[in-house]
Amino acid sequence: MNEDLKTPQRRAIQYFYQDGSFEFGFGLLCLVLGVYFYVENRLQGTWLAVLADSLLVFTVIGGAFLIRWLVRKWKEHVTFPRTGYVSYPRNYGLKHGRRSLFGLVAGGVLAAAAVFLFMKEDVQLSIMPLLTGIVLGIFMIFVGWRTSLPRFYIQAVLSMLAGTALAFSTLGNYVGLAAYYLVISVILLISGAFILRKYLRQNPTSREEQNER
Length: 213
Prior knowledge:
The structure is a single chain. By secondary structure, this protein is an all-alpha fold. The protein has one domain (about 5-200). The chain has nine helices and no strands. It is globular, with a radius of gyration of 20 Å.
């Protein structure tokens, strides 16, 4: 693709991430998952644990839809009045297929690594926070590559470091996974707060500009 066309497209993609709403939304979802896995661990050995296990998919999907709705409302009230609305076309075709294939291959490699580590008796680590840290780290790298925003590479490194550290801790799988989601949620929320502060200072509304005068 011509570089003259890439630059406007990249700026349009970056526009979605310039107000910190992505970090706030993703951070809240991670917070929900952190609380979920902590509660699930506390319920182990009771009939409620079976119920909690069956609700995981609904928790993720329901939480994702709720947070997506909140982010949309955020943009309607905070972002669009300041810097306008941008419509993003849906991504179909060969390029979308390649990205889906990449996700499947990455997931397969991580699953194979998990099986290998489980089979080694001398390896004492909690695999769930490790794999989650790597998967979310890869996702952040992809977002950073797609947007050319360096902060996502930093978040990817922090995700992998947190997952690795908790894998070798004594917390275990469920508590370690809950701790990972809580740690990454704090990282994302702090990052989102800095991004939002910068965005609001650079893009005041006309009313705020009049008040400053």
